[in-house]
Specification:
There is one protein chain. It contains six helices and eleven strands. It has 251 residues and is α+β, with helices and mostly antiparallel strands. The protein starts with a helix and ends in a 22-residue tail after the last helix. The structure holds 2-oxoglutaric acid. 2-oxoglutaric acid binds next to strand 10.
C-alpha cells in the first residue's frame, strides 16, 4: 500500500503525509464526525470542553469506537491499520482514538512528544486525518524533522523544554480534508490556536505493535484512574496524561 520511498521518508523524517481515501470515504468521515459532535448530552464516550472568546466549545471527544460502528470500521480495519503496520514493521492494534475539534477560537498545543503520555507501550504511531482544511491560520500541526530517536528533555508539564524548542526548526503541515499525516510517537509537534472563522476538526487514532498486546482498554482505565486522582489545576483543561493543551476551562 505504501511505496518504499514513503517508508524511507517516514523513517528519516518521523512523519509521512498521504491521501489514501476516495471522495466517498472522505465525505462519510465528515458525516460521522458531525454525528459525534452534535450528540453532546448523556453520551457514553468522553467529551471535553474549553472556554474560548466565542464562549464554551467542545474541544475533544475520545473513547468512541465501542459506540460508533462506522468509525470503528475506519480505524480498525483495512487501509489505516495496514499502512501503520507497514511503517511499524508488524500488524498493529488501535491503542486510543480522539477527535480534536479546534473550533473557531479553540486553543493550541505546546511542543511535545506523544510517547510520554502513552503508558504500557514502547513504540506507537499516531495518525491525523483532516476533517476540515488545516492551515496555519486555523492551527495546523507543526513538526520537527528527524528528531524522533529519543524522549527529549521535558518541563514540569511533560512538554519539550523551551531551550530545545527554540533551537530547532519547526515547519507547518497544512492539510486538505481527507489528507492523512502519520507520525511517530517521538516526533516533536505543536500547534497554534484557531484564529480563523473556520473550524479545524481532525481525527487522531494511535496504534501500537501487536507484539506489545491489545492495550486500548487498559489505556482508558489508566487514564481515568489518573484523571480521578489528580488534576492539572483549576486553570487547565485536562485532556491528556501530559499537560500540553493550552485551552481555558469552562467554569
Ligand atoms: O490538534 C492539534 O492541533 C494537536 C494535537 C496534539 O498534538 C495532541 O492531541 O497531542
Amino acid at each position: 500500500m505504501l511505496s518504499q520511498s514513503d517508508i524511507d521518508h517516514f523513517q528519516l523524517k518521523g512523519w509521512l503525509k498521504v491521501r489514501p481515501f476516495d471522495d466517498e470515504t472522505v465525505k462519510n468521515l465528515g458525516t460521522m464526525i458531525e454525528e459525534l459532535q452534535s450528540t453532546s448530552e448523556d453520551v457514553p464516550w468522553l467529551n471535553h470542553y474549553e472556554m474560548t472568546d466565542h464562549g464554551p466549545k467542545i474541544c475533544r471527544t475520545e473513547n468512541f469506537i465501542p459506540f460508533h460502528a462506522g468509525l470503528r470500521h475506519l480505524l480498525t480495519e483495512g487501509t489505516l491499520p495496514e499502512m501503520v503496520g507497514d511503517l511499524l514493521g508488524e500488524p498493529v492494534y488501535l491503542y486510543k482514538e480522539k477527535v480534536n475539534y479546534k473550533l473557531t477560537g479553540g486553543a493550541g498545543f505546546r511542543p511535545h512528544q506523544d510517547a510520554p503520555a502513552y503508558p504500557f507501550i514502547k513504540k506507537s504511531i499516531s495518525v491525523m486525518i483532516a476533517v476540515d482544511a488545516s492551515t496555519e491560520e486555523n492551527g495546523c500541526l507543526e513538526v520537527c524533522d528527524a528528531a524522533h530517536q529519543e524522549i527529549l528533555p521535558m518541563d514540569d508539564r511533560g512538554c519539550i523544554v523551551e531551550q530545545w524548542t527554540l533551537q530547532h526548526k519547526w515547519h507547518s503541515v497544512e492539510m486538505a480534508p481527507g489528507d492523512v499525516l502519520i507520525f511517530d510517537a517521538l516526533t516533536p509537534h505543536r500547534s497554534g490556536s484557531n484564529n480563523s472563522a473556520y473550524d479545524r476538526r481532525a481525527l487522531f487514532p494511535t496504534y501500537n505493535a501487536q507484539s506489545e498486546g491489545d492495550l486500548r482498554t487498559a489505556y482508558y482505565e489508566e487514564k481515568m484512574r489518573v484523571f480521578n486522582e489528580s488534576s492539572h489545576g483549576v486553570n487547565s483543561v485536562r485532556l491528556s496524561l501530559i499537560n500540553d493543551f493550552e485551552g481555558k476551562p469552562v467554569v
